[in-house]
Amino acid sequence: MGYDIERFVGYVNEGLLCSICRDVLEDPLQAPCEHAFCTACIHGWLVHHSNCPEDRQVIDVSLLRPLYRYMKNDLNRLQLHCRNREYGCEMVCSLESIDRHERECEYSQIPCSNAGCSVQVERRHLDGHLAVCEFRSRECPNGCGYTILSAEDTQHNCVAELRTELELLRSEMICRVEEAKHEMESRLDSQRRHMVQKESILQNEIEELKSQMSRVMSDVRSLMAAERQHRQELEQAELEKREL
Q: Do the strands 65-66 and 28-30 form a parallel or antiparallel pair, or are they unpaired?
């Protein structure tokens, strides 16, 4: 939608009016047939049509172009009232600068910045409203450190608030202790399983060493028996030699 023509001071050229909404062009685009439209208006039109609303020539979004520079300059030089005129703003400025003015206009209706407050006030009265807004917050004057809303002044109880916070802290501490306990138990259990596994491996190695020692001792006894047998044979041979 374009700018309401009633806001403008003096004559507005017909060529600067949107061919769809018939208001003064806002963010204008021009078709090859040189008819001009507000961007929002022509985009909405082309959703359901494929031609120019003025002369019915076929057009497409890709064929739309910015307004001619001389027309853009004429458009920007138009003088109009601030949209906050009904609230008391008497500013008249060029279309080129109207957006900047309205963003900063003291008569603009803006929402209260306090959470929960739905009031809208003029920018120039915002500070006064914030000073009395029932949703404004401030630190408790009794020194408990809590931020309270003005609407909660009568219900605020420092002792109760601090007791509630203490209970929350206690609950949080218990949860953290339990978490630390579970984590420690988990670590100890893991280390215990690791030690049992190591003990089993060492036990197996000891059994293997015992088996190896048993085999070695058996071999040693066999060697000693063979040596005694060999000695006896030598002594027998020596006796037979002497007899001969």
A: antiparallel
pLDDT tens, position by position, 185-229: 989 998 999 898 998 899 989 999 998 998 889 888 888 988 888
Q: What is d(CA 72, CA 191) in angstroms, rounded to the nearest whole number?
A: 80
Alpha carbon 48 to its chain centroid, in Å, reads 38
Q: Which amino acid is at 102?
A: E
Q: Check residue 151 and report its DSSP letter.
A: G
d(CA 228, CA 223): 9
Report CA 131 to chain centroid distance, whole Å: 33
Q: What is the mean pLDDT of the chain?
A: 87
CA angle 237, 238, 242 (to 5 degrees): 115
- Give the separation between CA 198 and CA 214, rounded to whole angstroms: 24
Q: Domain extents for the chain?
A: 5-104, 109-149
Global model pTM greater than 0.85: no
Task: Look at residue 45 and give its three-state secondary structure.
Answer: helix
By three-state DSSP, how is residue 92 classified?
strand
Would you say 133 and 117 are in contact if contact means Cβ atoms under 8 Å apart?
yes
d(C-alpha 124, C-alpha 107), whole Å:
6
pLDDT of the residue at 18 = 94
20 Cβ neighbours under 8 A, 6+ residues apart: 37, 38, 41, 42, 45, 53
Rounded to whole angstroms, the Cα distance separating 194 from 206 reads 18
CATH number given to 5-104: 3.30.40.10
What token pair was written down for 94?
């060029």
